[in-house]
Amino acid sequence: PDAIDNTFEAIQQQKNVQKELENVPVDADAHEIKNKNSMDGPHKCKFNKITLKQEADKIENNLFKKIAEKEHQAKLQLEETRVGLAEVRSSSVQLMASLEALESRVDRGLREVRSEVAKLEFTVGKTEASQSYNMERSKDHIIDDSLALKSQIHTHQQHIDQLVLKVAQMQTKSVEEHAYEAICKANFTSLDVRIAKLEGQKHRKTRQNSKFLGKNWPSLPIN
User: Where is the segment annotated Disordered (predicted)?
Assistant: First the structure.
């Protein structure tokens, strides 16, 4: 934009110089000096005209050079802008393609993640249901086992009580048997003593009878 503005400015300056040249009289006789007391003559007017023409040509050449340079710079800038726009357009296209590919991958990844999440939720729900069912069954088994164990304990306790009672009865019976045995032994001892006394008395009586018979009866001859 700056180069274009400078070009327009140079063109405008060229037009202004051309207008000034058109206002300068070509013939020295037609040139009238407003101030009659002035020292300017026809030769000086021609000289000024030539000088002005040379300066105008020089300015025009410089302007053409500047215009050509500005046009060249403008073309270069325009080409750079066009190349930049093409690169931007190409980059935009590549970026859009990359974004579309990324969006496609993201969508595919999201679908896969949703599928995996659904599978995990189903697996977790199934596992929780199975665990709940197993816990209920385990709880029922524990209750049943506890009741059966309590029943067995009660049965064993009754059996133990019966055994304790039998042992107590056997111990009582054993004490009674020991007492009876002691009584029997005492009776046997008393009987033995009485038998011994009776045998002693019998023996003494036998001896006494033998002595008595020996005195009263004569001895028989031995053949």
Answer: 202-223
pTM of the complete model? 0.33
CB–CB of 63/8 below 8 Å? no
Residue 49 in any domain: the answer is yes
CA angle 72, 75, 81 (to 5 degrees): 140
Within-domain flag for 213:
no
Token pair recorded at residue 201: 């008395």
Task: Write out the E strands in 70-164.
Answer: none
The three-class DSSP label of residue 219 is coil
Q: Which domain holds residue 69?
A: 2-111
Q: Let me know if residue 135 belongs to a domain.
A: no
DSSP 167-213: HHHHHHHHHHHHHHHHHHHHHHHHHHHHHHHHHHHHHHHHHHHHHHH
Domains: count for the chain = 1
Residues of the chain below pLDDT 70: 1-49, 209-223
Q: Tell me: the pLDDT tens digits for 27-82?
A: 433 344 344 344 445 556 666 667 777 777 788 788 888 888 888 888 888 888 88
- How far is it, in rounded angstroms, from Cα 80 to Cα 77? 5
Task: Tell me 218's DSSP state.
Answer: P
Nearest to 71 by CA among 135, 3, 118: 3
Looking at the domain assignment, is residue 183 inside a domain?
Answer: no
Q: What three-state secondary structure class fits 93?
A: helix
